[in-house]
Amino acid sequence: MLSYICLNWALLVLFTGSTVSELVVIGEVGQDVTVPCHYSVRSRNAITSMCWGRDRCPNSKCSRPIIWTDGWRVTEQHSSRYQLKGDLQSGDVSLTIVNAREADSGIYCCRVELPGWFNDQLINQKVVVKKARISTASPHTYTSEQTSAPGSTSDSSSAVTRTWPSASASEAPQTASTPCSGPSDCLDVAANLQNTSVSLPSQQHPERGLYIGIGSCAALLLILILALFLT
């Protein structure tokens, strides 16, 4: 009976193995992705070896190993993109994937080799590396700046065009000193000057008529007075 119980216990431990936990880590392409893994270090004697592998944790060691450490330093490294940047002597054996790629997505096994049978600490980490999002805020800002410049130019030109109709014909002599852009412009300026010079005497006719009327009345009045004296 006792041997039967021991055999069942041995088979249970053999097939179940150590407790395995699983987490999910999400990163972006081109960024460094850190896959966490820690174990407890209460004394220097508790520092132990461990490995990282590209697959689920097997019954022993790591399948497709990518990095190993004896607890003090890295003893084996599959690629320089896989690094252990944590404090190994304090139990920080987190894996850093430098310049992550989409091909780095998958299951990673962190296996800490603890003394004793079936005592290894096993952690399966699922890593998902996604493409980085492209922001469109900068192109929209750049476009708005480009379109605002022509708008300001059109406003200034329209303001200039609105000032031309406000000029009257009487101001033509003041602008005649400016250079002519062509023969037709010079003829127009000369015609305006002639019309102005001709119109000036015509404006004095009312005053002359007034003076002539007053003189005529005075002459008639003088003739009437002389006629009275004569009679």
Describe the structure.
The chain has 231 residues and is of the alpha+beta class. The protein has a domain of 106 residues: Immunoglobulin-like (Sandwich), CATH 2.60.40. Helix content is 40%, strand content 20%. The strands form two sheets. Strands 1-9-8-3-4-5 form a six-stranded mixed sheet, with no helix packed on it. A three-stranded antiparallel sheet has the order 2-7-6, with no helix packed on it. Strand 4 and strand 5 form a beta hairpin. It is rod-shaped. About 28% of the residues have low confidence. One of its GO terms (biological process) is cytoskeletal rearrangement involved in phagocytosis, engulfment. This is HAVR1 protein. It holds the Pfam family V-set.
